[in-house]
Amino acid sequence: MHQRPHLEGPIGWHRCQELGGGRSVIDRHRVRNLTSAAVLILAAACSSSSGYVTSADPADAPAYAAPPRVPDVTKPTVTPRKKLHKGRVRLAFAGDVHFQGASASALGGDIGSAGKILSKADLAVVNLETAITSGGTAEPKQYTFRSPSSGLTALRRNGVDVVTVANNHGMDYGRTGLEDTLKAGKRSGMPMIGAGLNADQAFTPYRRTIHGVRLSVFGATDVLDSFATSSWPATTSRPGLASSKDPARLLRAVREASLTDVVVVVLHWGVERQSCPSARQRELAASLTSAGASVVVGSHAHVLEPAVRSGRTAVHYGLGNFVFYARGGAGAETGVYNVVVDRGGVVSTSWVPARINGGRPELLRGSVAEAAVAAQKALTSRCGVI
């Protein structure tokens, strides 16, 4: 394993790691139609087993003044969701959200027309790449993000059900900032995954039963700045993030949950501005699906990466930016990844394309949308992840 340092640029260049050697995503074998006693026996058995430097154009970097304060809306209005027939659940996933620069305009509640797609899902998840705090001390890095709690209210109003804070900005304002973020999530009714007051909490999934399908949704980060590699992950007695640098604990949790649930893993991973997944991403995806994850989705690259289906599993390597200060080009290409699941895993997937305009994702229409969907599909073969 080798490490390549990166400088943060206008959309956040970070230090990341790659691991040589990769495997294709593999389908997992699921045990079905067991009696309750058999499930308990299996659960008990499972539990017991147990570089280079990139320059940044200063003209692209936004001013990092504190975003305007917008009053919280105590009773958000959420668009009614279309239901599938019993036994199926529609999941929706979108990429990075931080309410900085131009994207601070979304704090008023309009996060862009792509929010309509999130609202139609039974369960919608995004990556919250900012601390929700006005306190704490900025960590020793070039870019640090924080936002007011009205950001959570805006997400709720647009149908977001869960956010992951397991990423390389989750503790930009230290443990105080993280604790404030977790408290803000509780006050606003926004479940947060991938972080906690200790490791047990950080690796605890969001659990929910929808249309008779039991879901467990985990969050974890495989990307941390070098100074944070040992200080940001949660421990038995220290608040922090769920890290997959050593994936053993995450894999164990996925195995245990997969005995009775459909498991989703939301990962912060990969190499910034690289549209093809790294060997490390492919290896983690293979390990997670083998352990029992039905759906693996990721972010961090700030550009779109390919999606792949294998049997009853699905992996989307990179959802790009979403509510973000991207100013055009590949960084502004975004969308919503829809996944329909039942008790056996993935039934179908679809991509709804959008483009960031003024910090907010706006849906594409007509031939432009068709071209964007085709380009997304072409990534799969171009990157060799078929």
Automatic annotation (TrEMBL):
Pfam families xrefs: PGA_cap
Entry superkingdom: Bacteria
CDD domains, per the entry: MPP_CapA
Residues in coiled coil: none
Domain Capsule synthesis protein CapA: 90-326
SMART domains given in the database record: PGA_cap
Sequence similarity: Belongs to the CapA family.
The name this protein goes by in its record: Poly-gamma-glutamate synthesis protein (Capsule biosynthesis protein)
Organism: Kineosporia succinea
